[in-house]
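Input structure tokens:
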């Protein structure tokens, strides 16, 4: 078996492999692409592509990748077509690590039915995290926005938005920062307020591959929950993505522990697409000796 870094000549074949595996819950690795054409577009767009392939007698038998963002790695795979899954996955993982910068943490997000990839990550020292659900709102199912939309973010709300974000997402304290930059055309931040104080915010973004809108972050102050602010924020962002920017759908991911958020998404027209679970390894330990 030969393991090597991916090349442009591999893109189409690897994309078809990912499409096939991601169509099957028992081999699906979430957030790694569902359609071959979109996966190829992502490969072509990335300036630094960390992806490796396994071949036997010239035939593609496996692939694995990692998207790197601010010291964290988001793993895609392992995708193994045939043969000894664990042996191929381990060989891919070893080669991939050699191609990665030093990372503080690596994360994988698998369909709950992908038991063999789960066993692989646990064997590599990863810890099983919370379960999560992936929801989608098709453009055709977009509910009407009754009442005034939430307001666009302005710097006046920066301190309160950041404080609310730190309470809602303590494990991702800087995730809100990019959305507070007013010049970003592919991102938007909306807020609800009582005229003086920020009561909630929603951060949304536009993805080209796959072409969809995404709700990245949503938080409402505990003192005003269940008063309609969450739905107002959510639908404001959905209308911005679908009506103003022509997105065919809006996606989001929510953790198991947030039952109240799941009910909000379902009331707002979002449909459950997949159930997944995360695996992570911390403290810069992504390189194994």
């Amino acid at each position: 078996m030969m393991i090597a870094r991916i090349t442009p000549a591999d893109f189409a074949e690897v994309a078809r492999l990912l499409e096939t595996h991601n169509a099957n819950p028992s081999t699906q690795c979430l957030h790694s692409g569902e359609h071959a054409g979109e996966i190829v577009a992502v490969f072509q767009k990335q300036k630094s592509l960390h992806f490796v392939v396994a071949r036997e007698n010239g035939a593609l038998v496996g692939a694995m990748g990692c998207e790197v963002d601010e010291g964290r790695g988001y793993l895609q795979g392992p995708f193994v077509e045939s043969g000894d899954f664990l042996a191929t996955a381990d060989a891919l993982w070893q080669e991939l690590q050699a191609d990665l910068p030093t990372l503080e943490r690596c994360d994988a997000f698998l369909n709950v039915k992908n038991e063999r990839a789960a066993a692989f990550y646990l064997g590599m020292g990863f810890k099983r995290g919370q379960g999560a659900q992936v929801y989608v709102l098709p453009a055709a199912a977009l509910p009407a926005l009754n009442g005034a939309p939430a307001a666009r973010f302005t710097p006046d709300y920066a301190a309160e938005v950041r404080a609310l974000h730190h309470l809602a997402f303590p494990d991702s304290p800087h995730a809100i920062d990019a959305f507070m930059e007013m010049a970003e055309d592919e991102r938007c931040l909306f807020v609800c307020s009582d005229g003086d104080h920020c009561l909630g915010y929603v951060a949304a973004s536009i993805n080209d591959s796959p072409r969809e809108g995404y709700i990245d972050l949503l938080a409402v102050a505990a003192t005003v929950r269940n008063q309609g602010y969450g739905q107002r924020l959510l639908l404001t962002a959905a209308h911005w993505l679908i009506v103003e920017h022509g997105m065919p759908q809006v996606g989001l991911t929510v953790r198991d522990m947030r039952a109240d958020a799941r009910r909000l998404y379902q009331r707002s027209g979002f449909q459950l697409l997949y159930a997944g679970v995360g695996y992570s390894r911390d403290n810069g330990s992504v390189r194994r000796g």
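Residues 285-289 have pLDDT under 50 and may be disordered. Helices lie at 11-22, 36-45, 85-98, 115-123, 158-168, 229-244, 259-267.
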